[in-house]
């Protein structure tokens, strides 16, 4: 992508300035867009521009950001809150961490503009508990903003006031789910809430709240500065704007890069990942975190955008951080690890998720240990179909994320699982009289 101009990572590779500091970020034009927005633009105009840009959420579900902002009730007395999801708990995902660590003022300027557009008086940034360095960098940047009068009461002498607070989680995957996050933010156990009411109507502390991912909000400065048409000119029509795409697993050079969406997984591996490690063959990939499911070897040309993964039978683009597996990998072993993760992270509120994830983990373990049969395999597959929000059996999407790897792994690599099965046991005849 030689002519691609980085937006989210603009300036981070420079050695003459440090964009992590307020001074360095201002040297690349930083904070001017927020200053202009609160001086010259009405909140509704910004929301319309973000709608027109086609910006879709980068946290996993791909929901249109501007539409979400528009759901806030117009006649509510407030206060309104903006909650920023920096939990980044999806396995194999490390893109928001890069933004917080390397370009914290871009994140904060996006937050400030979004807060103004959504009339939020307070913005809470919820960070994953283990993110020690991102927290330190972000805390320094927030302090600089307060000292420079960018946050606080009557910013630049105007009517708008904004307070920004960082909040550290305690390391539960489910606290990345937006309503689990809200519960945790309020000091309670991170149990997802039944929706409706949606957070836009009743969110943090019972007030209207917008929740967006770190990367989503990092796109906002560019949209407001350069316009919706510019944003739409980057990437395919359904997947507009810059994107951080990650690569890990059996490639030569794992990492995270900024680029337009639409690149094929094959090109990503060859051009950015330096090819498959040790020249081995590509076998599979979970291209957007563990919860989206598995690809087959012939699906390597899948495009990394909001459409490509669904065409390959996956849950969605997820976090666009791909974990690549070579020919040496045994899919049942990987699937067991994933099942163990979801079973451990299920919050336990919904029966299908609580019992189903545990049952899947134990049955897969039995298969791996050579004690299972085809009936077990069919049972696990059936369990996966019965859980999640899609069949209306759960409060949050964790159950869907637990089911999708099971469905795709068993459907696409069934032979590997069958090879582990003992011949089906003969049914024991029922005792006489029954
Ligand atoms: C189990 C689970 C975990 C999630 N973890 C994260 C996360 O770590 N970070 C994130 O931004 N979104 C996560 N999400 C998605 C959020 O619920 C929500 O959709 C997102 O933060 C909204 O922001 P966006 O519209 O900007 O993507 C998770 C969802 C589920 C179901
Ligand atoms: S689906 Fe699972 S994680 Fe989500 S609320 Fe229900 S039990 Fe908890």
Give structural notes.
- Helix 7 links the parallel strand 2 and strand 3.
- 40% of the residues lie in helices and 12% in strands.
- It has a 4-stranded parallel beta sheet, with helices on both faces. It has a 4-stranded mixed beta sheet with strand order 6-5-8-7, covered by helices on one side.
- The protein has 434 residues and is an alpha/beta fold.
- The protein has 3 domains: 22-232, Rossmann fold, CATH 3.40.50; 242-326, Ubiquitin-like (UB roll); 331-418, de novo design (two linked rop proteins) (Up-down Bundle), CATH 1.20.1440.230.
- Helix 14 runs antiparallel to helix 15, helix 14 (331-345) packs antiparallel against helix 17 and helix 15 packs antiparallel against helix 16.
- Bound molecules: flavin mononucleotide (FMN) and iron/sulfur cluster.
- The site of iron/sulfur cluster (SF4) has 14 residues, from helix 15 and helix 17.
Summarize the topology:
Blueprint: H1 22-27, H2 32-40, H3 43-53, H4 65-70, E1 80-86, H5 96-102, H6 104-117, E2 120-127, H7 132-147, E3 163-168, H8 178-185, E4 209-213, H9 214-218, H10 220-226, H11 228-232, E5 242-249, E6 255-260, H12 265-272, E7 282-286, H13 308-311, E8 321-326, H14 331-345, H15 351-368, H16 374-386, H17 398-412, H18 414-418
Parallel strand pairs: 1-2, 1-4, 2-3, 5-8
Antiparallel strand pairs: 5-6, 7-8
Helix pairs in contact: 2-6, 3-6, 5-6, 5-7, 14-15, 14-17, 15-16, 16-17
The chain binds flavin mononucleotide and iron/sulfur cluster.
What would you report as the Rg, rounded to the nearest angstrom?
23 Å
CATH superfamily heading of the largest domain: NADH-ubiquinone oxidoreductase 51kDa subunit
Would you tell me the structural class of the helices and strands? alpha/beta
> How far apart, in Å, are the first and last alpha carbons?
71 Å
Number of helices: 18
Which molecules other than protein and nucleic acid are bound?
A: flavin mononucleotide, iron/sulfur cluster
The coarse overall form would be globular
Helix content: 25-40%
Give the ordered list of helices and strands: HHHHEHHEHEHEHHHEEHEHEHHHHH
Name of the top-level CATH class of the largest domain: Alpha Beta
Spatial strand arrangement across the major sheet: 3-2-1-4
Give average pLDDT, whole number: 95
Low-confidence stretches: none
**DSSP E strands, number:** 8
- What name does the CATH topology of the largest domain carry? Rossmann fold
């Amino acid at each position: 992508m030689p002519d691609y101009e980085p937006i989210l990572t603009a300036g981070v590779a420079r050695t003459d300035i440090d964009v992590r500091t307020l001074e360095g970020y201002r040297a690349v034009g930083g904070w001017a867009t927020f200053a202009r927005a609160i001086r010259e633009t009405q909140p509704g105009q910004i929301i319309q521009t973000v709608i027109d840009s086609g910006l879709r959420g980068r946290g996993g579900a791909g929901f249109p950001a501007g539409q979400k902002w528009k759901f806030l009730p117009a006649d509510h007395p407030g206060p309104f809150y903006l909650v920023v999801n920096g939990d980044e708990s999806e396995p194999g995902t490390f893109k928001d961490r890069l933004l917080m660590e390397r370009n914290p003022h871009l994140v904060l300027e996006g937050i400030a503009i979004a807060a103004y557009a959504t009339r939020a008086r307070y913005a809470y940034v919820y960070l994953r508990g283990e993110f020690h360095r991102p927290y330190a960098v972000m805390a320094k940047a927030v302090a600089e903003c307060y000292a420079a009068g960018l946050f606080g009461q009557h910013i630049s002498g105007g009517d708008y006031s904004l307070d920004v607070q960082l909040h550290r989680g305690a390391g539960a995957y489910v606290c990345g789910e937006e309503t689990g996050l809200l519960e945790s933010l309020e000091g309670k156990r991170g149990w997802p809430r039944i929706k409706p009411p949606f957070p836009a109507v009743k969110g943090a502390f019972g007030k209207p709240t917008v929740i967006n991912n770190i990367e989503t909000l990092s796109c906002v400065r560019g949209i407001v500065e350069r316009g919706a048409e510019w944003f739409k000119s980057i990437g395919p029509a359904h997947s507009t704007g810059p994107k951080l795409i990650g690569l890990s697993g059996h490639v030569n050079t794992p990492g995270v890069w900024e680029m337009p969406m639409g690149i094929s997984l094959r090109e990503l591996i060859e051009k950015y990942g330096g090819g498959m490690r040790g020249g081995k063959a590509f076998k599979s990939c979970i291209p957007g975190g563990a919860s989206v499911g598995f690809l087959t070897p012939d699906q390597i040309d899948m495009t990394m955008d909001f459409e490509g993964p669904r065409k390959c039978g996956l849950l969605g683009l997820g976090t666009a951080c791909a974990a690549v597996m070579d020919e040496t990998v045994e899919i049942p072993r990987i699937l067991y690890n994933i099942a163990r993760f979801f079973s451990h992270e299920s919050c336990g509120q919904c029966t299908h998720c609580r019992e189903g994830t545990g049952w899947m983990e134990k049955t897969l373990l039995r298969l791996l240990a050579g004690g299972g049969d085809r009936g077990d395999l069919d049972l696990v597959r059936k369990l996966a179909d019965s859980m999640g929000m899609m069949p209306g059996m759960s409060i949050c999407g964790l159950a869907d994320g637990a089911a999708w790897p099971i469905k795709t792994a068993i459907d696409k690599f069934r032979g590997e699982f069958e090879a582990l099965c003992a011949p089906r046991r003969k049914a024991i005849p029922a005792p006489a009289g029954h």
